[in-house]
Protein: UDP-N-acetylenolpyruvoylglucosamine reductase
Organism: Oceanobacillus kapialis
Amino acid sequence: MNHHPIYEKLINITSKQNVMVDELLSNHTYTRLGGKADILVTPETYEEVQAIIKLANSEKVAFTLLGNGSNLIVKDGGIRGIVMNLKGLASIRTAENSIVAESGARIIDVSRNALDNRLSGLEFACGIPGSVGGALFMNAGAYGGEIKDVLVSAKVVDKEGNLLTLSTEELEMDYRTSNIPEKGYIVLEATFALQPGEYEQIKAVMDDLTYKRESKQPLEYPSCGSVFKRPPGYFAGKLIQDSDLQGKQIGGAQVSLKHAGFIVNKDGASASEYIALIQHVQKTVNEKFGVKLEREVKIIGEDK
């Protein structure tokens, strides 16, 4: 199984324990869905990321960035070529009133680090399940805050493997979007500018948001978080609820009884069941209210 021609080259770039062949991606996604990756590689330095991109380019091998798999559905047929996971880049450093966090760090951990250093501005992120890279990718936000409010700059690698430092303006961030997907950038680290604050006050805000999230969101089952973007003038969850879809199940996938905007993997769902349920929800809401729900979650990979 290790005779994939590119396997040896990847081991030379990083190390044996960082390169897995035929790895089930359901082990690496929040939804617990997804078939096998031909090769899953977990680099530990920025140089390794650059070298892997250049290798994929020169060998003309398909390349996919997994992120930490929180806002993502991988299909049952898995992903061909090289899949990169950045969980090996997870350091968080604080300097005066700013925090530099590597893209594989969880944005929740960055907001806790801010609290520990009595820095305010990232409270809103204390309940966002994704990685720093994923948070920049989609300009993640919650409870009135968003990444672009506190981001100063990011280090990224472009499609050719070049290292760039870009300002927030250059990343063209807008509601739940940035130019990172279209430009094919891979985020390596982000620098956040924060304000000094009182520990107790910052903690009180975070505790309140954590309570709101835990009381409303179905955290007891695997899910990809909120499935749909908020349609202008509506709430996705309310439209789904008003369409009598709460509890609707296809196979092991279910529209959450706790929060209709979530679809949970209740019982060993396959990706195709999960996707079928998303499409069923979109179709029903459109028929009933004439509103087209747009997916916030990304679907990648191949059918079985």
About this structure: The chain has a mean pLDDT of 94.
